[in-house]
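User: Quick sanity check before I run a bigger batch. Here is a single chain. Can you write out its predicted 3D structure?
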Amino acid sequence: MSQDKRGYPTMDPMMSPGYHGDAPPAYYDNGDITNSVFDDKTARHNFIRKVYMVLTMQMLIVFSFVAVCTFVDDAKFFVQNNPWMYYVSYAVFLVALIVLSCCGDFRRRHPWNMIALLIVTVSLSYMVGMIASFYRTDSVIMAVGITAVVCFSVVLFSMQTKYDFTSCQGVLFVCVIVLLVFGILCMFIRNKIMHIVYGSLGALLFTCFLAVDTQLLLGNKKLALSPEEYIFASLNLFTDIVNIFLFILSLVGHSRE
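Assistant: Done. Predicted structure follows.
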């Protein structure tokens, strides 16, 4: 994990965008499905309820890590002085993420899919908690509040709008590549304005991803996730929200210097 000249950790640009790039095509074209079990409203509602139950547990875990690393001085000292644990968590996170993203049969096999999802959640939560420990407490609290408002608003908007965000995945993938290149530049060019712009663009991009993944979950647009893919859906939403939080935290932290 790199740091800028003010001691703030800079987000690894390879950490999250690669997730969407590695995701398998676990989608269904709603225009070609008629009289199918996937069109059954009860099955879809049960699917949505299951996804949000899993997502709620994931968010409780990640923000528990953030709270401990922010408010407990001993925990903050430990994570800041043991960076090797960050890299170990990063490696574990990537391996479990690739397995869940690319192995469809494993992703649907209970309870191993839940175990792998728990590993992804805990490892990413540790990384997020460590990053948060480098920021001021008020900046972390502000970032949590802004993230909650943004995510809640985006989910409501995605449910109500008639615009099909699922058709924008190609454009968003190109934006991920641009953000990746910009993030690499920010690692070498130590400029406050560039870090603020990077944080703003990253938060905006993953807000769009959250809108896309929400509509894929709801199944009311051209593309939809199969109700069997509740692990994949939870993983999508979880990484979107975590990335929004990290980018907003970076933006708030650098703007309050």
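The beta strands are 27-29, 223-225.

User: Great, the batch can go ahead then.
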